[in-house]
Amino acid sequence: MSMSKTSKVIIYVLLTIMALYFLSPFVYMFFTTFKTEAEAIAYPPTLFPKKWLVGNFLDAWNAQPFGTYLWNSILVTVGTTAGQLLSCSLVAFGFARYNFKGKNVLFMILLSTMMIPWDVTMIPQYMEFKVFGWINTLKPLIVPAWFGSAYYIFLMRQFLMGIPKDFEEAARIDGANAFQIYWKIFMPIMKPQLILVGVLNMISVWNDYLGPLIFLQDRSKFTLALGLASFKGVHSTQIIPMLCITVIMILPPIIVFLFAQKHIVEGTSGSIK
Amino acid sequence: MDKKLLRKGTPYFFILPWIIGFLVFTAGPLVLSLIMSFFEWPITSSPTFRGLGNYIEMFTADKQFYKSLVITLKYAAIFVPLNMVIALFLAMLITQPVKGVKIYRTIFYIPAVISGVAISIIWSWILNGNYGALNYLLSLIGIDGPNWLVDPAWALFAVIMASAFGVGTMMLIFYTDIKSIPIDLYEAASLDGANPARQFFSITLPIITPTILFNLITSLISAFQQLTLVMLLTKGGPLNSTYFYGMYTYNNAFKHHKLGYASANAWVMFVIILFLTAIVFKSSSAWVFYEAEAKSAKKNGKSGKGGKR
C-alpha cells in the first residue's frame, strides 16, 4: 500500500508525540540523577545538570545494603526461571503430546486458575509458608515456580500442539524412552518458547513487589524491588538517591527486553491464536 | 503388565509438577481461604467460628467496604476503556507502513517491562505539586496544575495516569492481531473507495473483536487487583480517596491482622470479578466476530466486505 506524503507526516508527528510521552520521564530521570539535591527540586526545573555528579550513584548504593538486595533478586530470578522452564515444559509436553483420561478437564482447570485473584490465595499461602517455616526466607518466592505456572504452560502447549503428530515416532522406534524424547528432541525445538517464558518470568519476578512485601521481613532478605520501596519510605525527601537506584533497578529488564524483543512479539502473536 | 502400566502413567508423570503445585499452592489455599472467611482468625491467637458474621459485618457495618468498592469500580470504569483506547491507538500507529516504526514499538513497550515500584517513584516525582515537571509543563500553556497526589479530587486520576504508562502489553496484543489481517482485505476496500476511517471501522475493528474481548477481561481482572501502585504512590490517601479494594483487603489481613475478615473481603471481590466476567462473556455474542464465521462468509463470495454480519 502506498501512502500520501501528508498522511506519512501526520503519522510521524503522532508517533513522535507518543514517544515523547513514554520516553521523556526516563530521559529526564537519567539527567536528574547527576544533579545536586537543590537542583533537583528547583523550580522551574532544568534538564541538564550544572555539574555531572557521577558519585551520586555510589552514595545511593551505599546508603543501604543494596548489594545484598541485588544478590537476593538475582537468586530469586535465577531460581524461579530455572524452575519455570523445567516444570512448564514438562507439563506442556504432557498436555500437548499425549492423550489420557481426564486431560481436557485438567486442562480446563489449569486455564481457569488464571482467573483466581491473588487476594484470595495470598492469606492462606502466607499461613502455609508459616507452617513450613519459610517466612522471611526466599523459599516462598522460589519454590512455587518449580511446579509450573498456568500462563507459561499454556504458551508452551500452544506451540507443541502445532508440531505434527508423528514427529516422535522415529525416535520411539529407535528405542528412546518418553523422557529422552522430551529432553533430546522437544526441548531443542522449543528454544524460542523457552526464551520467551524465561524472559517474561525474569521480568515479572525481578519487578515483583507484593510477594517479597508479604513474605520477607529482614533487610538481609530483601529483594531490590522491596529495598527500593522501603528506601522510598525512609528517604522520601531525598530524590537523587531514590532516582539513582531506580535507574539501576530498571536497566536489567530493559536490556533483557531489547535482546529478546523478537521472541516477545512473536510469542504474543502465538498466544492469542 | 508393568510396561503397560508405565506407558499409561507416562503422561501423568509429565503433568505431575503442575498437579502438585495446583493442590498445594492453588486449590488448597482456595478452600482454606473460603473456610477462613467464616471464622474470626487473628494471626496470633486461635480462630473462632463466626458463620456468616464476616459477610454480615461487611455489608451492614463496614463503611470502608462500600467506599473502597466504589473507588475500585470508578477506577476500573475509567482505566479499562482508557487503556484499551490508548493501546489500540498505539497499535494502529505502529502497524502503519512507514520507516523506523519498529523503534517506536520498542519505545512504547519499554514502560511495560518496568517494576511498579519504579513507576510509582518516577510518577510521584513528576507529579509533585512543588517542583514536579508535569505542572511546570502545564504552566507553560497557562494551566495551574493541581497538587496531584495530595488533592483528593485528583489523586485517583494520578493513579490512572501512572497505570496507563504500562499500556505496552495490551498494545502488543492488538498489534500482533492487526498485523495478521490479510492485506488484500484493505486493498479491495480501498479499490471500492473506502477511506482509512471507513476501513478501520468496517475491517480492522470487527476482525479484532475477539482480541478486544480478551483485553477487556484481562484488564478488568487486573484493575480490580490494583495494589502496588496505590500502595506506593498514594498509600490509599489523601483522605482515603484512593483506598482501593485491594488495599482494603491487604490492610485488613496484614495491618489489622484480621485474616478471616480479609478472606471474606477477598471472596466478595472474587465473586464480583466472576460476575463481571460472565456479563462481558454473555454480551460478547452480540459484538464479537469470530474468524471462522469470517472465513465461511468469504467462501460465499464478498471478499471485500469483512464487516459485521
Order of helices and strands of chain B: HEEHHHHHHHHHHHHHH
> So how many helices of chain A?
14
Q: Runs of chain A with pLDDT <50, length 5+?
A: none
Helix content of chain A: over 70%
What series of H and E elements makes up the topology of chain A? HHHHHHHHHHHHHH
Spatial separation of the terminal alpha carbons of chain B: 57 Å
> So how many helices of chain B?
15
Features:
heterodimer; A: 273 residues; mainly alpha; 73% helix; B: 309 residues
Describe this structure in words.
- The complex is a heterodimer of chains A (273) and B (309).
- By secondary structure, chain A is mostly helical.
- Chain A has helices at residues 5-32, 37-40, 55-63, 66-97, 103-112, 118-132, 139-142, 150-161, 169-173, 178-189, 191-207, 210-215, 224-234, 239-272.
- In chain A, α4 (66-97) crosses α13.
- Chain A is globular, with a radius of gyration of 24 Å.
- In chain A, 37% of the residues are buried.
- With 309 residues, chain B is mainly alpha-helical.
- In chain B, a hairpin with a 7-residue loop joins β1 and β2 (48-49).
- Classes of the chains: A mainly alpha (273), B mainly alpha (309).
Produce the secondary structure layout.
The complex is a heterodimer of chains A (273) and B (309).
Chain A: H1 5-32, H2 37-40, H3 55-63, H4 66-97, H5 103-112, H6 118-132, H7 139-142, H8 150-161, H9 169-173, H10 178-189, H11 191-207, H12 210-215, H13 224-234, H14 239-272
Chain B: H1 2-36, E1 39-40, E2 48-49, H2 53-60, H3 63-94, H4 101-109, H5 116-126, H6 133-140, H7 155-164, H8 168-179, H9 183-191, H10 196-207, H11 209-224, H12 228-233, H13 245-254, H14 259-287, H15 291-299
Antiparallel strand pairs in B: 1-2
Helix pairs in contact in B: 1-14, 3-4, 3-7, 3-8, 3-11, 3-13, 11-14, 13-14
